[in-house]
């Protein structure tokens, strides 16, 4: 069944909102973007973001809870990659919407009611 054609039931809608909430943080968005390109250890992700490993791990836990990232242990290091969901398309879609909104604001045509 084509997912674009079906209307979500309340369970699916709640799951979708949980995914969107998990990504609705700039740090988690950047983490997911980096992981959509390659598998990385937590330490490299923390360095990329300029944050502590513990803070990065907390963000990764939030993304892991909704199935957007998957961990893999290798010795004492934990590597992360995007999960089975097509996270890259989600991120690109969000950028397209943001770009369109920015274009509307620049042109003075943004709907102030939403």
Classification by helices and strands: alpha+beta
The helical percent reads 55-70%
SSE string, helices as H and strands as E: HHEHHEEH
The mean pLDDT is: 84
N-to-C CA distance: 31 Å
The number of distinct β-strands equals 3
What gyration radius follows from the Cα positions, in whole Å? 16 Å
Describe the structure.
60% of the residues lie in helices and 12% in strands. It is built from 5 helices and 3 strands. It has helices spanning 10-23, 26-37, 42-49, 53-65, 87-107; strands at residues 40-41, 69-74, 77-82. Strands 1-3-2 form a 3-stranded antiparallel β-sheet. A hairpin with a 2-residue loop joins strand 2 (69-74) and strand 3 (77-82). Helix 2 crosses helix 4. It starts with 9 loop residues before the first helix and ends in a 7-residue tail after the last helix. The model has no long low-confidence stretch (mean pLDDT 84).
Secondary structure layout:
Elements: H1 10-23, H2 26-37, E1 40-41, H3 42-49, H4 53-65, E2 69-74, E3 77-82, H5 87-107
Antiparallel strand pairs: 1-3, 2-3
Helix pairs in contact: 2-4, 3-4
């Amino acid at each position: 069944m084509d997912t674009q054609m079906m209307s979500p039931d309340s369970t699916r809608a709640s799951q979708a909102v949980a995914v969107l909430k998990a990504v609705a943080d700039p740090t988690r968005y950047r983490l997911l973007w980096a992981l959509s390109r390659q598998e990385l250890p937590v330490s490299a992700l923390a360095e990329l973001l300029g944050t502590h490993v513990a803070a990065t791990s907390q963000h990764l836990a939030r993304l892991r809870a909704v199935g957007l990232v998957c961990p893999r242990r290798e010795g004492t290091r934990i590597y992360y990659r995007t999960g089975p969901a097509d996270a890259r398309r989600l991120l690109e879609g969000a950028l397209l919407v943001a770009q369109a909104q920015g274009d509307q604001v620049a042109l003075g045509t943004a709907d102030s009611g939403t």
